[in-house]
């Protein structure tokens, strides 16, 4: 595996050859790193685009605006309302495909208007090991993932971001709010808003890495194990506020925070099918 600094040079070369780019910019670790490097290489020939939507926490939108100003890049905000797409609202395991199709179609329109040939996203090399149906939409729309292409891992990107003095280097992962819903539970604006407000209750305690998973009347809280004691110390206040939001039961997942926990059911179903077919 190449050293991160070599991968960085490969990334810069790749961007240089493109000349002008539109980048999907969420304000997360990966897309902020990509926008920063692209801006250093291409300057005003970079446009960062952020989608304002019910699935995107309002605090993250403000953070994206702040980071774009800090970098100095031209920043466009578009409205992308996935909750108006029926296939997305149904929340099947390929939900992300419809979300990415909606979002990157908007970015392609911007690129066409600006006469730019390349639309980029922040997928990194580690993402290839996860269940990500949205990648199919990226392939169909010819979206380029340069971090993945030069084999930059999440660890590489965090370390390089720290060297570049990007304050996102240790930012917790922040998937869209739709990722809080088990497959099959219908996604609505009201439910997305409820989850966002519930997570803000926990975040206001100073806990950075968390998820509130929506199981109809049950809220399942995931935090790192080191933060569980703090959560328990404020349990009465948390339960009260969650019930005001409409939850009947409030639970703490003893396994703690983990990415893609709602995909565990897919992995279990796969094992079950394999066991049955093996008889």
TrEMBL record:
Bilayer-spanning residue ranges: 21-39
CDD domains: LarE-like
Record SUPFAM superfamilies: Adenine nucleotide alpha hydrolases-like
Nucleotide-binding in keyword set: yes
GO molecular function, a single term: ligase activity
PANTHER family: EXSB FAMILY PROTEIN, NAD_GMP SYNTHASE DOMAIN-CONTAINING PROTEIN
Domain Arginosuccinate synthase-like N-terminal: start-end pairs: 20-158
Keywords from the UniProt entry: ATP-binding, Ligase, Membrane, Nucleotide-binding, Transferase, Transmembrane, Transmembrane helix
Active-site residues from the entry: 176 (nucleophile and sulfur donor)
Classification of source organism: Bacteria, Candidatus Aerophobota
Protein name: ATP-dependent sacrificial sulfur transferase LarE
Superkingdom to which the source organism belongs: Bacteria
